[in-house]
Design a protein that fits this description.
It is a single chain. By secondary structure, the chain is an alpha+beta fold. It has a single domain, classed as NADH Oxidase, CATH 3.40.109. It has four helices and three strands; from the N terminus they run αβααβαβ. The chain has a three-stranded antiparallel sheet with strand order 1-3-2, sandwiched between helices. α2 packs across α3. The radius of gyration is 16 Å and the shape is flat. The protein starts with 8 loop residues before the first helix and ends in a 7-residue tail after the last strand.
């Protein structure tokens, strides 16, 4: 939750979206390409979050680097079958003030 480049960024968000996956549910059908398809799909979902946020004048920031154990623990995903693969913080944008 404490990111090195923007301290407390995720903690300051109005909402934090977390997407998880259970890869074996896709592997039976798509074999090794399942992982690629999962990541492409979650990218599309997050892009739609950016669009929806923009329409309500909110800001979104996707987060791909995080402490896996902490996030999975918070969400109760403490097994090897399901885990978080992507996060996105959404909140009010800063208003630029004229000087």
């Amino acid at each position: 939750m404490d990111q090195p480049f923007v301290p407390n960024f995720a903690k300051k968000a109005a909402v934090l979206f977390a997407w998880s996956t259970t890869p074996y549910r896709s592997e039976w059908k798509f074999d090794i390409t399942a992982h690629k398809k999962i990541l492409i799909d979650i990218g599309h979902v997050c892009q739609n979050l950016y669009l929806a946020s923009e329409s309500i004048e909110a800001g979104t920031c996707a987060i791909g680097i995080y402490d896996q154990a902490i996030i999975d623990g918070i969400l109760g995903l403490e097994n090897e079958e399901e885990f978080v693969i992507y996060l996105a913080a959404v909140g009010r944008r800063r208003v630029k003030q004229d000087v």
